[in-house]
Amino acid sequence: MAAEYALQMVNIEKYFGRVCALRNVNIAIGSNEIVGLIGDNGAGKSTMVKVLTGVHRPTSGDMYIAGRKVDPRRYSVKRAHEYGIETVYQDKSLGEKQVLWRNFFIGRQVTLPFGFINVKKEKEIAQEIMLNTIGFRGRGITVDSKVSKLSGGERQGVAIGRAMHFEAELIVLDEPTVALSLKEVRKVLDFVHQIKVGGKACIYISHTITDVYEVADRFIVMDRGEIVGDIRKEDTSLQELDQYLLSYSHGLRDRAE
Ligand SMILES: Nc1ncnc2c1ncn2[C@@H]1O[C@H](COP(=O)(O)OP(=O)(O)OP(=O)(O)O)[C@@H](O)[C@H]1O
Ligand SMILES: [Mg+2]
Description:
The strands form 2 sheets. The chain has a 6-stranded mixed β-sheet with strand order 6-7-8-3-9-10, sandwiched between helices. A 4-stranded antiparallel β-sheet has the order 2-1-4-5, covered by helices on one side. It has helices at 45-52, 77-82, 100-104, 119-134, 152-165, 182-197, 209-215, 238-249, and strands spanning 5-16, 19-30, 34-38, 60-65, 68-69, 85-88, 170-174, 201-205, 218-223, 226-232. It has a domain at 5-95 and 167-249: Rossmann fold (3-Layer(aba) Sandwich), CATH 3.40.50. The longest helix has 16 residues, at 119-134. It is globular, with a radius of gyration of 19 Å. It is of the alpha/beta class and 257 residues long. Bound molecules: adenosine-5'-triphosphate (ATP) and magnesium ion. Magnesium ion binds at residues 45-46, 90, 174.
C-alpha cells in the first residue's frame, strides 16, 4: 500500500556555521500532492530541498520518506534516488561538458558483467527518453550532443525526463523556469500536471507566482528559514496569495522575536 505521505520533516534545523538557514521546519507532502514552495530570496527554500535530497545533512530534526524514518548518517544523494526522490536544481543539474546520454545515468550506470558500463544500452534508453518522454525531435540534438549546446528549457527537459524515466515518487523542481521562453515554461508546467496525473508528488519552487498557483494543490510559504504559511489552493485566490507574499517581502509581517 502506498504511504500517505511522500515526505515528512519534523523540526528540521540547518545551520551553516552560525547562520541558521532552517528553523523548526515541519512539513508533510502527500504522496500525490503538488506543493508550491514560495518565499523571498534567501528564505531557505533551496536549503530545505538540499536537506531533503541528501546534499546537506540537517543539524537536527527527523525526516520520513514514504513513512520510513531516514537515518541522517546514512542519507545521501544516492540514497535519496533509491527512495525515489529526484531533483532538478536551480543551479546546474547537468554536467555541462558531458554528452547527453551520460547525463541520464549519472550515479546509476547500467552495467555489464565485470562492471563495465553498457554504453549501447544506455544510449538506447537515453534515446527512448528523449523521443517519448521529453519529445525532443530534430533540431540536430542527439544523445551524443553536449549539454552546453542545449537551451535552458531543453536542459530542464532532460533533467525532468530523467526523473520521469526513473519513476520518481517525489520530484523537486527548484526554479525550473528561470530564463525560459514562454513556450518552454509551458512545457515545464505541463510536465508538473503530468506528475499529478501520474499519481506522484512534486515540490515546485518558483518566484513566478502565477506558475506556482496554476500547478500546486497547496502553498508553503517560507520566510527567513521558517515556515510561515501553509495554504490550500481552494482557500485562496492568486491575487490574495500574491498580496500575502508581498506583505512578507516588504517586511510588513515582521514577527516579534
Ligand atoms: N552552503 C551554504 N553555506 C552558507 N550559507 C548558506 C549556504 N546555502 C545557503 N546558505 C544561506 O542560507 C539562507 C537560505 O538560502 P537558500 O538558498 O535556501 O534560499 P532560497 O529560499 O532558495 O533563495 P532563492 O529564492 O534566492 O533561491 C541564505 O541566507 C543563504 O545565504
Ligand atoms: Mg533557491
